[in-house]
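Methods, example record. To illustrate the input and output format used throughout this study, we show the complete record for LVIVD repeat-containing protein. The sequence lines were provided to the predictor; the line carrying structure tokens was produced by it.
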Amino acid sequence: MKRIYTHLFCLLSLLGMLSCTDKYTEIFTANAPVYMSYDDLRSAVKTSSAQPMKHPGKIYFKDNYILIIEQMKGIHLIDVSTPSSPKNIGFIEIPGCTDMAIRNQLLFADSYVDLVALDVSNLSNVKESHRLKDVLPYRVPATDNEFPVTRIDQKKGVILEWEVITEKRELEPSYYPNYPMYDNLANSSSPDKLSAGGISGSGFGKSGSMARFGLYDKYLYIADTYILNIFDVSGTLVNVGKSSLNGNVETMFVYDKHLFFGTPNGMLIYSLQVPNTPALVSTFWHATSCDPVVVQDGYAYITLRGGQVCHADFNRLDVVKLSADYKTNTLAASYNLTNPYGLAIDNNTLFVCDGTAGLKVYDATDKLAITSHQLAAFPDIKTYDVIPVNGYLFMVGDDGFYLYDYADLQHIKQIGHIPVVKE
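The corresponding predicted structure is encoded as:
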């Protein structure tokens, strides 16, 4: 931000008193929003040919497909029916998409302020089935610089991107030394032919540990900081309502008729005994950090990440022993890590995305000695999240999508890769 102050001095008045009029010219460099109208947003969903991955985000598995979020743009469709040869077969354009879930043949995704349901029974012709308008918070894409953000007019539509502008303003003396008001919302609450196949069958897919979408019975849950949005997805989309949460939720994991939320201060456990009214069961507090959680057979595995954004100076894995009713939870062990993000557990095999330190695989049979039983490590990848399915591990990181065969735990190997295309 630059400021130029020009002082215009006055002559003495006839009364012998000094009277001045100062003008202040201020030049500001800032991010200005580029809008998409709501009408254009609500006609934008469509299927297109395969697109290169540039900014991959969350992942989801259903049938023989891995779906990968292209942050704020849409969803990549990856055919993994032949695991050693994953194929990028298409792209679903969904502006503002950051998360997803699949029930039967319907894919649910956020599109800025809207929730959309897409029929994915035929991936060559994905169709919008239902849309609920204005049920999600107004979000904006992140900026890639340190300039402030100009005022945002939500009536103009949603924000596709930012353009850097320079503004020059002349201010009257009465305004000095105030500065123009900028609302820095940018950090508020991330040609192949299409296959003729589709996502079919009944049941749910499988999300990664970084998800904020979760399915149980006929309900879709969407966590938004301190609020849980609940939708009935058994027929047409029905907005059931909102439920207040006891923490700032970052991630959600559905297991054993319960919701397990990762928050900066602890793990929250909610019962789904009454699915449309989740009830708090217990809270396991930990030091402030960023943390996804996964659960299996009476244990919760939580990665705690430090850094400036997460307000912590440590990185570790916590293993928490859960009681049968989830009301009494005790820390069993903690292990130092480098920069952990997502994780997954399959029987006694624990997969940890340790950020810049890569993918790590452990035998977690002995909860008191997990890091002493490392099965494999793939260090030269900046990892984000993983999903294990039937001896295959699907992983997404900063430089693309990876596929591993872990059927033989003594010889885990990478068998497929779709790289990110650098801009």
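Annotations derived from this record:
Helices lie at 38-41.
DSSP finds one helix and 32 strands in the chain.
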